[in-house]
Design goal:
With 182 residues, the protein is α+β, with helices and mostly antiparallel strands. The protein has a domain at 45-131: 2-Layer Sandwich (Beta-lactamase Inhibitory Protein, Chain:B, domain 1). 31% of the residues lie in helices and 18% in strands. It contains six helices and five strands; from the N terminus they run H-H-E-H-H-E-E-E-E-H-H. The chain has helices at residues 4-24, 29-37, 53-57, 65-72, 124-131, 147-151, and strands at 45-48, 77-78, 85-93, 100-109, 112-118. Strands 1, 2, 3, 4 and 5 form a five-stranded antiparallel beta sheet that branches. The longest helix has 21 residues, at 4-24. It is extended. 7% of the residues are buried. Part of the Bam complex. Pfam families: BamE.
Length: 182
């Protein structure tokens, strides 16, 4: 049987936990609205093979399957039943925004690219801007100085070039390589 002080501390912890839990149910409407508006951060989720507009513009009829694979990567969907068709699909899910889905289908005739069909694909910079969720409200300061501002920092008689700093004379360093070779 536990010691009386241990039993008392367990009882006190149980009472405190009960009080804390009962306080959770006593939220008024404004506090509950505030609590419901706070949501955890959900990072953007990209699924599938991202294909940019720049990549699709590099595709030319007559290219080999290997050349297409070097430009677009391995297709997300390739089927034995449709050996002359590769599908590239990617979706972007972001918090508070509708899901975006993009699709590119490449058709081959034998080993050569015949044609391709695509949704309106984003450019690489557009896609990067969609993923970057940092707020850009801060203004970038102008990095220009007038002649009057520059003259405030000039000292009359100051040397034009910086003076090199010499190491202290008392510094001694060990040799970089050992002279004894085995």
């Amino acid at each position: 049987m536990p010691a009386p002080s241990l039993r008392l501390s367990r009882f006190a912890m149980a009472v405190l936990a009960g009080v804390a839990l009962s306080a959770c149910g006593a939220l008024d409407s404004s506090t509950s609205r505030l609590a419901s508006s706070l949501t955890p951060h959900r990072p953007p989720i990209v699924q599938g093979n991202f294909v940019s507009r720049e990549q699709a513009e590099q595709l030319k009829p007559g290219m080999s399957r290997q050349q297409v694979r070097e430009i677009l990567g391995t297709p997300l969907v390739s089927s034995l039943f449709h050996a002359d068709r590769w599908d590239y699909v990617f979706t972007l899910r972001r918090q508070g925004r509708p899901e975006q889905s993009h699709h590119l289908t490449v058709y081959f005739r034998g080993d050569a690219l015949d044609r391709f069909e695509a949704d309106k694909l984003p450019t690489e910079s557009e896609f990067a801007d969609q993923i970057d969720t940092r707020r850009r409200t801060a203004r970038v300061p102008v990095l220009e100085a007038t002649e009057a501002q520059l003259q405030r920092f000039e000292r009359p008689g100051a040397p034009a070039a910086p003076v090199p700093v010499q190491p202290p004379a008392s510094a001694s360093y060990p040799p970089l390589e050992s002279s004894a070779v085995r």
